[in-house]
Write a structure and sequence with these properties.
Strand content of chain C: 15-25%
CATH superfamily of one domain in chain C: P-loop containing nucleotide triphosphate hydrolases
Largest sheet of chain A: none
Chains: A mainly alpha (286), B mainly alpha (321), C alpha/beta (547)
Helix content of chain C: 25-40%
Number of strands of chain A: 0
CATH topology of chain A: MetI-like fold
Largest sheet of chain C: 6 strands, mixed
Strand content of chain A: under 5%
Radius of gyration of chain C: 25 Å
Mean pLDDT of chain C: 88
Number of helices of chain A: 11
CATH superfamily of chain A: MetI-like
Low-confidence stretches of chain A: 13-23
Oligomer: heterotrimer
Chain lengths: 286, 321, 547
C-alpha cells in the first residue's frame, strides 16, 4: 500500500454508514481555509496588499508584530505577504504534479485493468519495479538526469506519485468491471462500448476527483521538500519550500522565517485531506 | 504410490512460493539496475566530462580520452550495460566521480547510521500510533475526534519543517537537546522524533480505523459475552486484527523513512545514506546515486519480505493458503 | 401481552419486566416482559428492526455504549442484574448466561484456533490449568457433536464447514454450563440440512435443563424446538404463548401476517401477503398448462480452476426444460452449482459442454452479437438487488435505460411509461428520483423486477430473489411475481436454497447437489414422494410450521 492507497481506503471506510461522522467543524474550517488559499493564489493582493519583494532594511529580522504578523526576513520583506504571494507557486506546482501523476496513473491503470492478462501482468511488474524506488528516490533520480529546477521538480514529484495512482485505478477498474450492475447491463443486451461508457468509466473516474484532492497536499509537501533541499524552486521565488530554505540560515535568530511558510504547507495538506474525505463521503451518500 | 506424490506436492507448496518470491526479487533488482543504467544514458553531455568535474572544468582531450578508456565509455552501449550488470552481480558499484572512492565501501559505511535512525523511528512511530489508537478508541467521541485530528495533522507535517521547528524549540529556546546529531543518544532524539511523528500519524489513522472495525465485529461481541474485559478484548482480539493493515503499510513506511532520512540527515548534519545521496544528486555524481538506489532497492525488497513474514505471523490464515 | 400478573415460577432462569432500551431519542425496545424457566425454550420472533436483537443483548448487559436500558425487573436466576457495573456483568457473562450469534465465521475470532476461543471462557471464569482446560474443550466439542475434536481444536473457524463452526461457537457459549443460553439467529445462513442439526443440538441443550432464548426472524424454524413463542414488532411483544397456540391460532394481526407469509406447504397460487381485498385471499385458479418449451438446458457442464490448479466441476451434465407460463424451481444447498447454472442460463458464462436453447434457437452457442437482440426476451432478477444497480443512477435513470428510452428521457411519454411500470410492481412515482441506496430492501427488489419487466421478457431468471428479505416482504414479492406470471404468461426459473419458497412457487422442480441434478419432476410429485435419498433428507429438513 502507498500513502495514497491508504488515504483512498480510509476515505472509503469513513464513508460507511454507521460510522460517526467526525468531520463537521473540521469540514467547515477546511472549507474556509481552502477558500482563503484559492483567493491567495488567484488574487494575492486582496489578502496581502503589500509588495512581496518590497525591501525595507530598517525593519529587517522583525519578529511577528501587529505590523508584520509573520515578521520580516533579512531584507525586511514582510513574510506574510511573501507567503500569501507564494501560494500560487505552491498550488500550481502541487496541481501540476498531481495532474502528471494522475495522468500517468490513469494510462497505466487503464492499460492494466482493461487490456487482458498479459498487459496486466506486464504493467504490474513495471509498477512493482517503480515501487522499489520508494518515496522521493524516483524524483531524485529524475533530477540527477535532467538537473534541478521548478519544472523538473514538478515532473519528478508527478512521476513518484504515478505508481500509487496506477495501482488504485487498476483496482477500481477491476472492481467495477466485475460488479453485478455491469452483468445486469449485459443481461439487458447492452454492448461492450455502451457498458464501458455508461457504467465502467463513470464509476472508475468519479473517485479520482477525491484522489486528486487528497494527492495535491502530498504533492505540495514533496515539491516543497525538493525546493528546501535546493533541487526545486529557488529564491527569490516565494514558493513555500524555497522560503523555508531561505530561512534556514537564520534559524537561530529568526525562527519565524521558517516557521510560517511551513505552517502554510501543513495547513494546505490538512485542508486537502479533510476536504478529500468530506467530498468522498458526500459523493457516496448524495 | 500416493504417499511420495503427496509429499512432493507438500514440498513444492513450501518451496514454490519461496522460489517465486526470490525470482521476483532478482527480477526487480535487474529491472532497477537496467532502468538506472539507461536513464543515466539520458544525461546530456559527455560522461567523461562529468568525471573530470563537469562542463566547467577545461579538461584536456588527452585526459578525456584516458577517462573514457578507464570507465569504458568508448565501448558500445550493450557492452557497457553487460559490464555494468556483471559488476553489480559481483557487488562492485563502481567509482565515485566526485570523491574518487569506490562506491560500495562508501555507501555501506553510511548504511549503519541510516538503518539505526530508521529502525528507531519505526519503533517509536508504532508505539505512538498504538498508544494514540488505543486511547482514542476507548475514550469516547471527544477522544476519537481529538485523536483523529492529531493524526491528520501529524501525517501532514513535512519532515523539514518539523525538524526546524523541533530545533527552534528544543535546541534554541529550551537548550535541552543538541541541534546536530553526531553520535550520542541525545543527538538522536530530535531526528528520530522528526521521522516518527508523521509516520505515527499515518499508522495511527489506519490502526484506529481498523480497530473500530474490529471492535464492532461479531467475534468481539462473542468475546464480551464470554466475560472478556475491555482490555482483554483489545489485546487478545482487536489489536491483532487492527495491526494487519498497518503492517502491510510498512513498505510505504520504508519509503517515507528513506525520503525523511535525506532531509533529516541534512538538517541535523548526520552522516548517512540520505545525506550521501543528496550530495551526490547535487554534484551529479552518478555512480554514487546508482549505488544508493541499488542499496535502497535491496532494502525495499528485504522490507517487503519482512512485512510478508510479519503478516503471516499475525494472520494464520495466510499460512494456510 | 403478558402484562397480567403471572405467577413467577421458582425456577425461572430469567425474568424480564417492562424492559425498555433506547439509543438517544429513539426507543428500540418499548416495554417488554417475559420469563424463561429452566429447561424451557422461548423463541422471540420478529422482522428486522423489531428490536429482538437489542432485547437479547440487553440480557447480557451488551446493548451498547450509548444504549439506555431500564426495566421494572431484570433477573438472572433470581438475582437482579439491572444497573450492574461492567465488572459485575463480566463476572456473569459466560458463566450465568451464554450467547450464540449467527454465522460463526465472523462470530469466532478468525485469527485464533477454535480451541483457544472455547478455552477462553474457562480461562476467564475458572482456575483450571492449561491441561485441564484442553481436556474440557475436547469434552465440549464432543458434546456438541463435532467429529474428531482432537484434530479440530487447532483449526481456525475459516477451515471448518458452516455447521462445524456453529457447533464450535455453541461449545464456547456452553463451556461453563450457563443456566441461560441466548441464541441470536443461530441457524441463519446455514443450509437447511445443517440448520436441522443445529436446531436438534439446541433442543438437546434445552433438554439438559438449560433455559434457551432463541431469537429468530423465521417462525417456521423456531416452531420445532420452542416451547413458547413471543412475537416482537416495533419494540413490543405483540403476542406470547405456546408454540401451538401462537402458530395454530394467532390472535394478533401481526402474528397472522407472519404465519400467512410462510410459504412452505401453501399450495401454488395461495396469497402469502394478507391483503385488504378479500378477493385476493382466495387461491387463484390454476393456469392452463402448455407443453411448449421456452428454455432448455441440454447436458450443461462448467468447471472452474481452483487456486491450487485443480479443476472444480461446478455444474456437471445438467439438463432440464422450462415450459411456457410455468415456473421451474431449482433448489440446492451451498455449493450445489445453482448460481453457476443461473449464469449459464443468462449466457454470462459459456458452458464447457452442452448448450442452452431459448425459444428453440441456439442461445449459449450463439455469438454475443447474435444474442444481444434476443436478450430482451430473457430477464433476470438478482439476490443482491442493490449491487445490480449502477450506484450513480436514480430509479428513473435505471428504468429509462431498461426501457431503451435514454434518448427521450425528458419526454412526457417516457415519464408516463415509468409510472406505469412502477405501478405494475406496486411502487409509486415518488421513488423515481431516489437512488437504490435510499430504498428499503423490498422496494429495491421491486425496482429490480420493474427493470426486468421493462423489456417485456418472456422468461425471467430469478436467482435467490427473496433470500435477503424479511418474511413479510418476501411474501409480497412472491405474490407480485405470481401475479405478473398470471397476467403476462411469464415463464420463470426460480433458483433458491429455500425449499419452502421453491415448493410454494414451482410447477416443476430440479434438485441439485454438488453440481449434479439428483432429481427433477413436477413439484407436487417431488415433494410428496421424493425418489432420491438426498431429496428425502432435504425435504425432511424443511422448516415447517409443526404442531
Amino acid at each position: 500500500m502507498s500513502e495514497l492507497e491508504v488515504q483512498a481506503d480510509f476515505a472509503a471506510r469513513a464513508g460507511q454508514p454507521g460510522r460517526p461522522r467526525r468531520l463537521g467543524v473540521a469540514e467547515t474550517a477546511a472549507g474556509v481555509l481552502a477558500l482563503f488559499l484559492l483567493v491567495s493564489a488567484v488574487a494575492p493582493h486582496l489578502v496581502a496588499p503589500g509588495d512581496p519583494l518590497g525591501i525595507d532594511p530598517l525593519s529587517a529580522f522583525a519578529p511577528p508584530t501587529r505590523a508584520h504578523v509573520f515578521g520580516t526576513d533579512e531584507s525586511g520583506r514582510d513574510i506574510f505577504t511573501r507567503v500569501v504571494h507564494g501560494t500560487q507557486y505552491s498550488l500550481v506546482i502541487g496541481a501540476a504534479a498531481t495532474a502528471i501523476g494522475l495522468g500517468l496513473g490513469i494510462v497505466l491503470g487503464t492499460l492494466a485493468g482493461m487490456l487482458g492478462r498479459v498487459v496486466d501482468f506486464t504493467v504490474n511488474r513495471f509498477l512493482e519495479v517503480l515501487f522499489a524506488f520508494p518515496g522521493l528516490l524516483l524524483a531524485l533520480l529524475f533530477i540527477v538526469i535532467f538537473g534541478p529546477g521548478v519544472a523538473t521538480a514538478t515532473i519528478a514529484v508527478g512521476l513518484s506519485t504515478a505508481p500509487g495512482y496506477a495501482r488504485i485505478i487498476r483496482a477500481q477498474l477491476i472492481t467495477v468491471r466485475s460488479a453485478a450492475f455491469v452483468e445486469a447491463a449485459t443481461v439487458l443486451g447492452r454492448t461492450r462500448w455502451q457498458i464501458l461508457l455508461r457504467h465502467i468509466l463513470p464509476n472508475t473516474l468519479a473517485p479520482l476527483f477525491v484522489l486528486a484532492t487528497l494527492g495535491i497536499g502530498q504533492a505540495i509537501v514533496w515539491a516543497a521538500t525538493l525546493s528546501y533541499l535546493g533541487l526545486g524552486a529557488e529564491p527569490p521565488t516565494a514558493e513555500w519550500g524555497a522560503l523555508l530554505s531561505a530561512g534556514r540560515t537564520y534559524i537561530t535568530s529568526a525562527w519565524w522565517m521558517s516557521f510560517f511558510p511551513g505552517l502554510f504547507i501543513v495547513l494546505t495538506a490538512v485542508t486537502a485531506t479533510v476536504l478529500g474525505r468530506s467530498i468522498d463521503s458526500r459523493m457516496r451518500h448524495a | 504410490m500416493a504417499e511420495p506424490v503427496n509429499r512432493r506436492r507438500a514440498v513444492l507448496r513450501v518451496i514454490g512460493p519461496m522460489a517465486a518470491r526470490l525470482g521476483g526479487a532478482v527480477f526487480v533488482l535487474w529491472a532497477v539496475a537496467s532502468i538506472t543504467f539507461f536513464a543515466v544514458r539520458l544525461i546530456p553531455g559527455d560522461p567523461a566530462q562529468a568525471v573530470l568535474g563537469g562542463p566547467g572544468s577545461q579538461a584536456s582531450p588527452e585526459a578525456l580520452a584516458l577517462v573514457r578508456n578507464e570507465y569504458g565509455f568508448d565501448q558500445s552501449v550493450l557492452v557497457q550495460y553487460l559490464a555494468q550488470l556483471g559488476r553489480l552481480a559481483t557487488g562492485d558499484l563502481g567509482r565515485s566521480y566526485a570523491l574518487n572512492q569506490d562506491v560500495g565501501p562508501l555507501v555501506l559505511g553510511q548504511l549503519g547510521g541510516t538503518v539505526l535512525l530508521a529502525a528507531l523511528a519505526l519503533v517509536v512511530a508504532w508505539l505512538l500510533a498504538l498508544a494514540l489508537a488505543a486511547w482514542s478508541t476507548r475514550g469516547g467521541l471527544v477522544a476519537a475526534r481529538v485523536g483523529s485530528g492529531l493524526e491528520i495533522v501529524a501525517a501532514a507535517l513535512p519532515h523539514f519543517w518539523l525538524a526546524t521547528s523541533l530545533i527552534v524549540v528544543f535546541s534554541i529556546w529550551l537548550g535541552v537537546l543538541p541541534p546536530i546529531s553526531t553520535g550520542g543518544a541525545t543527538g538522536l532524539v530530535l531526528p528520530v522524533l522528526t521521522l516518527a511523528v508523521p509516520l505515527a500519524g499515518f499508522l495511527g489513522q489506519v490502526l484506529r480505523e481498523s480497530l473500530l472495525t474490529a471492535l464492532e465485529s461479531p467475534f468481539v461481541l462473542s468475546a464480551r459475552a464470554r466475560g472478556e474485559s475491555e482490555r482483554g478484548v483489545l489485546w487478545t482480539h482487536a489489536l491483532r486484527h487492527a495491526s494487519l493493515p498497518a503492517i502491510s503499510l510498512s513498505g510505504w513506511a520504508f519509503g517515507s523513512l528513506i525520503s525523511g532520512a535525506i532531509v533529516v540527515e541534512t538538517i541535523f548534519a548526520r552522516p548517512g545514506l540520505g545525506r550521501t545521496l543528496l550530495n551526490a544528486v547535487t554534484l551529479r555524481d552518478v555512480p554514487v546515486v546508482i549505488g544508493v538506489v541499488m542499496i535502497v532497492a535491496v532494502a525495499y525488497i528485504l522490507m517487503t519480505l519482512l512485512t510478508d513474514a510479519a503478516s503471516r505471523l499475525v494472520d494464520p490464515r495466510l499460512r494456510l493458503a | 401481552m403478558s402484562t397480567t400478573a403471572r405467577r413467577i415460577e421458582p425456577d425461572a432462569a430469567l425474568t424480564v419486566r417492562n424492559l425498555r432500551v433506547d439509543f438517544g431519542a429513539d426507543p428500540v425496545v418499548r416495554g417488554v416482559s417475559f420469563e424463561v424457566a429452566r429447561g424451557e425454550c422461548l423463541a422471540i420472533v420478529g422482522e428486522s428492526g423489531s428490536g429482538k436483537s437489542v432485547t437479547a443483548r440487553s440480557l447480557l448487559g451488551l446493548a451498547g455504549a450509548n444504549a439506555r436500558v431500564s426495566a421494572d425487573r431484570l433477573e438472572l436466576g433470581g438475582q437482579n442484574v439491572l444497573g450492574l457495573t461492567d465488572r459485575a456483568w463480566r463476572a456473569r457473562r459466560g458463566k450465568d448466561v451464554g450467547l450464540v450469534l449467527q454465522d460463526a465465521l465472523v462470530s469466532l475470532d478468525p485469527l485464533r484456533p477454535i480451541g483457544r476461543e472455547i478455552a477462553d471462557s474457562l480461562r476467564l471464569h475458572t482456575t483450571l490449568g492449561a491441561a485441564a482446560r484442553a481436556r474440557r474443550v475436547l469434552e465440549l466439542l464432543d458434546a456438541v457433536g463435532l467429529p474428531d475434536p482432537a484434530r479440530q481444536v487447532q483449526k481456525l473457524s475459516g477451515q471448518l464447514s458452516g455447521g462445524e463452526r456453529q457447533r464450535a461457537l455453541i461449545a464456547a457459549a456452553i463451556a461453563l454450563n450457563p443456566p441461560l443460553l441466548i441464541a441470536d439467529e443461530p441457524t441463519t445462513a446455514l443450509d437447511v440440512t445443517v440448520q436441522a442439526q443445529i436446531l436438534a443440538l439446541l433442543e438437546q441443550i434445552t433438554g439438559d435443563g438449560t433455559a434457551v432464548v432463541l431469537i429468530s426472524h423465521d417462525l417456521a424454524v423456531v416452531s420445532h424446538i420452542a416451547h413458547r413463542v413471543a412475537v416482537m414488532h416495533d419494540g413490543l411483544l405483540v403476542e406470547t404463548g405456546s408454540s401451538r397456540q401462537v402458530l395454530g391460532s394467532p390472535r394478533q394481526e401481526q402474528t397472522r401476517r407472519m404465519v400467512a407469509a410462510i410459504p412452505a406447504d401453501k399450495p401454488r397460487g395461495t396469497r402469502l401477503s394478507l391483503s385488504a381485498r378479500a378477493a385476493d385471499a382466495a387461491p387463484k385458479p390454476a393456469r392452463p398448462a402448455t407443453s411448449a418449451v421456452v428454455l432448455e438446458a441440454i447436458g450443461l457442464s462448467k468447471s472452474f480452476r481452483r487456486p491450487d490448479g485443480t479443476r472444480h466441476l461446478a455444474v456437471d451434465d445438467v439438463s432440464f426444460a422450462l415450459q411456457r407460463g410455468t415456473t421451474l424451481g431449482i433448489v440446492g444447498e451451498s455449493g450445489s452449482g445453482k448460481t453457476t447454472t443461473a449464469r449459464l442460463l443468462l449466457a454470462l458464462l459459456p458452458p464447457d459442454q452442452g448448450e442452452v436453447r431459448v425459444l428453440d434457437q441456439p442461445w449459449s452457442a450463439a455469438s454475443e452479437k447474435a444474442r444481444r437482440g434476443r436478450r430482451s426476451g430473457v430477464g433476470a432478477i438478482y439476490q443482491d438487488a442493490l449491487g445490480s444497480f449502477d450506484p450513480r443512477w436514480s430509479v428513473a435513470e435505471i428504468l429509462t435505460d431498461a426501457l431503451g428510452l435514454r434518448h427521450r428521457r425528458r419526454a412526457p411519454q417516457t415519464t408516463a411509461r415509468l409510472v406505469t411500470l412502477l405501478d405494475q410492481v406496486g411502487l409509486t412515482a415518488a421513488v423515481l428520483r431516489r437512488r437504490p441506496l435510499e430504498l428499503s430492501g423490498g422496494q429495491r427488489q421491486r425496482v429490480g423486477i420493474a427493470r426486468a419487466l421493462a423489456a417485456r421478457p418472456e422468461i425471467l431468471i430469478c436467482d435467490e430473489p427473496v433470500s435477503s428479505l424479511d418474511v413479510s416482504v418476501q411474501a409480497q414479492v412472491l405474490d407480485l411475481l405470481d401475479d405478473l406470471q398470471r397476467e403476462r404468461g411469464l415463464s420463470l426459473i426460480f433458483i433458491s436454497h429455500d425449499l419452502g419458497v421453491v415448493q410454494h412457487v414451482s410447477d416443476n422442480i430440479v434438485v441439485m447437489r454438488a453440481g449434479r441434478l439428483v432429481e427433477s419432476g413436477p413439484a407436487t410429485r417431488v415433494f410428496a414422494a421424493p425418489q432420491h435419498p438426498y431429496s428425502v433428507q432435504l425435504l425432511a429438513a424443511i422448516p415447517r410450521l409443526s404442531p
